[in-house]
Amino acid sequence: MGKSYRLTACKRIVARLLAFVIASFAVMTSNAQKMSVASFGPDVSDQTAMLGPTIKLDPNGEKCALIKIVTTERGFQFDTGMLGVVETEEQNEAHPGEIWLYVPNGVKRINIQHSQFGVIKDYDLGQRLKQGRTYVMELTSDMVYNLVVNYDNEKSLDVDVYPANAKFRLNGVEKELDDNGKASLQLAFGKYRYRVEADYYHPEESDLTIDDKENRQRLSVRLKPAFGYLNVQTPESDGGEVYVDEKRAGSIPLSEYPLKSGEHKITVYKKLYKPYTTNIVMKDSAAVDLTPDFEPNYADYDIQVSGDSDAQIFIDGECAGAGKWNGRLETGHHIVEAKKKNHRTVREELDVERYVSRRVSLSRPMPIYGTLEITTSPGGAEVYIDGSSRAAGVTAYSDSHLIIGQHRVKIVLPGHKTEEFDVEIKEGEPQRIHRDLTDMCNAVIYSKPVADIWLDGEAMGRTPLSLNQEAGESRVVIKARGYTTYDKRVKLDGNTKDMTIKLRRNYTQPDEFYIQGGYNFSGMKSVNVGLGFYGRNVNFEGNYIISLENSEEIYWSNGTDIPLKASYKPASGNVKMGYGIRLNRRMRLTPQAGVAFLTLKETFEDDGVSDGIANKAKAVSLDLGLRLSVAVASCVGISVTPEYLVGAGKSDGFKALSEISPKIKGYAEGFRCNVSLNLFF
Fold first, then answer.
1. Which of 111, 175, 223, 435 might form a disulfide with 79, Cβ 3.0–4.6 angstroms?
2. Average pLDDT over all residues of the chain
3. If we measure between CA atoms, which residue out of 489, 498, 493 comes closest to residue 447?
4. What is the Cα–Cα distance from 506 to 490, expressed in whole angstroms?
């Protein structure tokens, strides 16, 4: 563009009408195989980058260089590396058919990228662009059409094509369709060339004009089929293989196989029959039905292996059966074999003539032998082959009639480790094997009672335990609940006899529940019943204590009436906690500490009136004890528990009674001792 200018409203209307007329008669051109730069160079007469409102400044405040890129397509991306792009102006009314690219001073290379046309990588401009200069670049591609269109007017085009997988091109550019063969395109007013094509259909190509300002425009294309259908069937269900123009089409029955219109060669192959060949001419939307007439090409054969029903019969390399086979062989040359693993294959060649039946007898395959020799230290061990229950011999052992292949060998000698291994026997290569047999312990460990057993720290289950291990010293641990653990190192070898371990009963357990009943013979004469338990040796116990005596008689008077005589009977209990210390299998010592509670019941000899100060008098004491329990049988024991009570709290009534009665005071303080009978579980 020369210099800046302004169009009057009238001129703008004229320019738009002119653009529309030009768009209606535009000619599309395309002759390159890929997107490329057709030409690039400075336009010395163009001062667009130097004058008026078309000047752009780079970040340094200097005038940009302008590249006018000649193309009607959009969606390009440009990159000049570190210097970058200052601004891009797409085609518009002022410069239709041109993209204006403003770049900084000094740009020498450019990258051009488009999602459909590809990439021009690192294009060398041949010079460093100068500020304020205008340059022209022409792009060309087999899909880029230089078409002058009116970009001031655009309209939606609804496209609907059949078949849905057809390709739709507009001005040589393929447009994406959805799964139903539809698309909605936004197009500028102008003239376009479209083409729709799909395999097996006739293509359609024509012109399209976008010029309706009021309504959405629609394009519906239905391609005409360029194919027909091939159907091939035979009376027999097994059919054959169908080939069209030497390419496999499928198996018989073949239904509605699509085939392009034109002449084709059809060949049908069926085993035991001669190939069927014919030529057909397929027409658009027509169907060709074929029913091949096959000519037999076989003979009946009966093949068997003499004296060996397990031998496999192979015909032309494919297994046909075991022992015997009868059926049809196609005319021609065949190879028949009798095979058996590790035996010599019997082979015979047959020339089959049409309709000439034969009976063929094959010799049985003969075994191939090898030699196995086994020695042991010590000798005299029995040798078993392939799981047989009968020994094949004793060491030193030798057998020259073992069939070649892999065999399982087992060597057994009492008091020694049994050896098992695989050996590969080969023809003409004797296998010589020597084994040093390991001394083994095969004894059985019993226990009374049945218990869990560990051997060298490994849990082995429960007794009895059958040993099968190499000779040596092992640590044997046997555990049973309620019994002392057996833990010793024992020498185990081939001379070890079966052993029985008797475990000693352990009457004191870390976890135990008990019920007890006893008598306090010191302090307050009383009997008690209680419950307790040990959990991991931690003890909890509770007792209810019933006094066997009353206090001495105590007289009460209010100062005016005749004194009243009263007596008091205690009722108490305690809860204690302790930790059990095992002294031996039967005895346990348990230090205990707890709280004792006591209540006095008041009884008057004669009816009278009392102020109630001593009725239901209460006391709380700190209870310190030492419980010694001894098990006399599996669930029965006795315990002796000396205790010392320290008064911790007293009601007013109890305090009053304690001051006049040492006996009552002793109910809540001082020493006492309990002897109990225990049932423990």
1. 111
2. 87
3. 498
4. 23
